[in-house]
Write the structure tokens for this entry.
Amino acid sequence: MSPCCSSLSHLISANLTTMHTIPMISHSIAISKFPHPFSSSSLPLRLSFTINGGGGGGPFLSYPSQKLPPFPISAPKIQSFKVLAAASVPEAKSDEPIKPAGLIQILQLGAMFGTWYLLNIYFNIYNKQVLKVYPFPATVTAFQFGFASLMINLIWSLNLHPRPNITRSQLVAILPLVVAHTMGNLLTNISLGKVAVSFTHTIKAMEPFFTVVLSSLFLGETPTFAVVSSLVPIVGGVALASMTEVSFNWIGFATAMASNLTNQSRNVLSKKLMVNEEETLDNINLYSLITIISFILLVPFTIFLEGVKFTPSYLQSAACQGLNVRELCVRSVLAAFCFHAYQQVSYGILQMVSPVSHSVGNCVKRVVVIASSVIFFQIPLSPLNTLGTGVALLGVFLYSRVKQIKPKPQTKAA
């Protein structure tokens, strides 16, 4: 072989070796959902991407490999992302063992869970007190979004969190989430104004049912027998609680059910959304932008639906119901603060625990909210009503567990 051919062969061999050693990076990031308040269930959004350095093509979108453990990436720029709203209970994404937490981390996590539950309790109590004497749920919801928007802009102005640079394609991608977030919170407040807090949250335990139905209809996902079985106590418990509810009201019942449909429709729709951008939104900024846009979207709708109801004459009418103007304003501000704060604490918890643990914690949170509202408002509960609520919440817990069971792959016969 001539020296020229030998050199050419050596060069080609070296290039092939270099190409085979180019790394492929797969990574999956779990960031928070509006738990409804992206959703009421407070479940995460996921950004999934794969950066492939080989083949001469640019980075492409892919699902994360189950074989490669997740690890942080800082150097490469993400050129595409896919917004995936997890279902009411996110599925486990790897078999990676969980490292035991230290005592300080356990105490910190316990404090955050306690704060999360406490903020939820106060939000539901203050919100119910306001809606009881000021029956304008659209105005109340718009005020809560507006107050949260002020808090968000204050955080950005003080550089406590970086301000995002929103692009047109990102805006188009999150608009369906904005509509669902707005409608979900509005419908929930309508329900809270019509029926007891405990009954609204009992009805909202039906979220897994809507998740399974909508995913089956629009995503072609076939639920397992265990998942379907876990829905039986949920549906049966809610039905029993509804039949024996003292404060039952058809508007309150229908709007709570509609909020379940809205929140889970959001999850199904968002699985189809994708936007190509150089930078992605973190969970806090994603929630912040959705809150601000929800406020902008809801204000004209509120004026059209209810008119201007924050004039002195309407505020004074609350005094006849038991709250003077000062008390009404203070409770409205406290409810709005708790509304925004418990979302942020929920995101902080999600960064410290697995989605499964967060889902179980969310189930416990609903139990705590129902129990505290029954005690505070002295709601009379019959034994059958208590049984129905308990069975429904037990079904939600079972759903959160069986949802993690992976079906065994069918082996082909030789």
The chain has one domain: 103-402. Residues 136 and 306 are 7 Å apart (CA to CA).
